[in-house]
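Q: Could you fold this chain for me?
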Amino acid sequence: MHVTLDDLPPEILLLIIAYTLSGESIPSNILRVNRQFRNAGVEWLYRNLCFRSPEQLRLFAQTSENAGVVLRSMTVDLTGKSARSDVWLHLREALWRCRNHTEKPGLGQEQILLEALCLRLHSYSRDTSHHVFEEALSVANPRVFRWTGPDPDHHFSTAIVAPVASRLCRVFGTWSNIQDITVTNITFSVDPDGLVMPLLPEIPSLRTLYVGQATFLNAGSVAAIFCVNQMASLKRVRLVDAYCESIWGSRIRRSDIEKAAQIMLPQDAVQYEGIISRIRKLLTCEKKTERIIGGDRVEGSIFLI
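A: Sure. Below is the predicted structure, expressed as structure tokens.
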């Protein structure tokens, strides 16, 4: 029996297209195979937007139509490229366009529901457009959010600077759809008055939180997630290479979180025991990358108790 490309089942065709377009290939190469590939490929591209340069994001934000496709995920991966300050402006405009093109008349939808929003880029303390960053992410409402540094894992660098980190945590509280959060290469603000606030606002839908390669993470802020917030859906919190101060200091251990919880609940032994039990059930502190010289070196188990 003679079989042609037109005979491919849609499931197989989409797998081929997704594999090809998820790499560094030029989209037009596979979209020109035939009409079937073009139609399925265009839909996949607009459903799973991926930008690998500031210029791509700018052009989409200024000229895009969504081909009648509902956006499912968006990725901005600027590995090896400088993230200019206007990247947040273009991200906001792109999300606005996608929201407005898919919004049903009369619903007044302010956010666009996404399966995933993934960032892989640096932010900068000298940037004066941090408020635009907050506005941009507030347009989205993803189920999964990931922001990881564009540098290799063994290169301990900061991608999410402290002013952006504080705004990012605020944005999390506006996402009613969020279930999984991953942030790495992040540094947190140090409160000059020693005020301890929960690391995250109350997020009823949150299931997992992963914080990796973090500096100036306050153990009390983590403990407050368990002592102050409710978050009944929370199933797992992972702190991987998370440091109390700089990377020359010590990593956070689970005992640090337990001690901070004890300070927060000194008068209620029953409540304290319940909190400690929940911390030991949900929280793991881990080491992943060791320094060649100096720092908090851990032998044996990766878990920090």
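A (continued): The chain has a mean pLDDT of 83.
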